[in-house]
Structure formats: C-alpha cells, structure tokens
Amino acid sequence: MLKVLRPAMTRALTPLGRVLARAGVTPNMITVVGTLGVVASALALYPAGQLWWGSVLITVFVLFDLLDGVLARQTGRTGPFGAFLDSTMDRLADAAIFSGLLLYFVSREEDLLAGLSLFCLVGGALVSYARARAEGLGMTCTVGLAERAERLVVILVAAGFSGLGVPYILAAGLWLLSAASAVTVAQRFAAVYRQAVPPKISDRAEER
C-alpha cells in the first residue's frame, strides 16, 4: 500500500545519500545506527510514558531504513550480507517498539493492551518469517494486508497521538494491527499452499 510513496522518499533522500557516500559512510553503518536508535528510543521513552517523543524519534530512525538503500546504490555496495543485515535489524527494531509498549502497559496494569502488544510483536514476526521461509523454498509470498511499512505507520501514529492526549487511539491501533497481522499471516499461508500443493488431476481436467 505504501510502496507508491517509496520512490518519492528515495528521491528526497538521494542528496543526503551522496553526501554520506563522499564521507565514507557505508550502508551497513546506517542500518546499524538506525536500528540502535529505534531500540534506544522505544525502550527508553515508551515505558516512561513518553509516547509522543518516542514515536517522533523512532520515525526519524526508521527513515534510516530507506537511507541505507539509497546509500547502497550510491556506493555500489549491494549484496546478500547487506540484505541479511537489513532484514535482521528490522526484526530487532520491531521487537523493541512493541516491547516498549508492552512495558508501558504493564506498568499501568493494562493487561489487555499489554497482551495485544505481545500479539502484534509475534504476528509481525510471523508475517516476515512466512515470506522469508517461502522465498527460501523458491516460492513468492508478497501478498498481505499489512506489511512492515503499514504496521509501523499504524503503531507510530497511534502511539504518537495517544501521547498528545487523543483517547482510545492507541487501543484502536493495536486492535486494528492485531487483526491486520492475523489476516496477513492467513493470506500468506494460503498463497504458499496454492504454490506448494499441486491441483488434483480432476481439477486440471476441468480447467481444460
């Protein structure tokens, strides 16, 4: 859904990518710094109740995920290790965001929302793992209602506006994200099943 915005954001970050490339900064450096920034912001500010500033800082560091790709193209340093590092750091960043929210709700004794945060953490990991495992088996698995970009937008907007005092928005965001993650996992299971299980002979005959 948000893929249409990626080219425009990439163009906006290209000048900064050129500057960093001339300074000798590598894409892997950007990936690691961005992830550490997300982890530190989420685990320091969310449990302390600083939902607005936590969301603002996390959003800034999440943009590093686009910047490392821009820098990789500028420097020609694209390769399997960079892709592996990027995907692995994404999982760490996502876990930190929902862990921060989980600690926030536990401190406020809001058990239901803490449970929803945990569900979103696990659901997001399953969404990503399903795709990675399917592609490792030679299949495609890009379908889904809520990929990582959509999940991040929902939770960061909900947490940020909750920090500004908007009532119920964080709870609504978590419920929405929980449902979207579950649907996406189901969609990816179905997509892989259709590719992995060949149609019966009778079905093939009917198609002809």
How much beta, percentage-wise?
Answer: under 5%
Oligomer: single chain
Based on CA atoms alone, the radius of gyration comes out at 19 Å
- What is the CATH level 1 assignment? Mainly Alpha
Q: Into how many domains do the coordinates divide?
A: 1
N-to-C series of helices and strands:
HHHHHHHHH
Describe this structure in words.
This protein has one domain: Four Helix Bundle (Hemerythrin (Met), subunit A) (Up-down Bundle). It is mainly alpha-helical and 208 residues long. The protein has 9 helices and no strands.
What is the secondary structure topology, with strand pairs?
Blueprint: H1 6-22, H2 27-45, H3 51-62, H4 64-75, H5 80-107, H6 111-136, H7 148-163, H8 169-196, H9 201-207
Membrane topology: Multi-pass membrane protein
Main location: membrane
Organism: Bailinhaonella thermotolerans
At a glance:
By secondary structure, the protein is an all-alpha fold. The protein has helices spanning 6-22, 27-45, 51-62, 64-75, 80-107, 111-136, 148-163, 169-196, 201-207. α7 (148-163) packs antiparallel against α8.
List the keywords:
Four Helix Bundle (Hemerythrin (Met), subunit A); Phosphatidylinositol phosphate synthase; flat; 208 residues
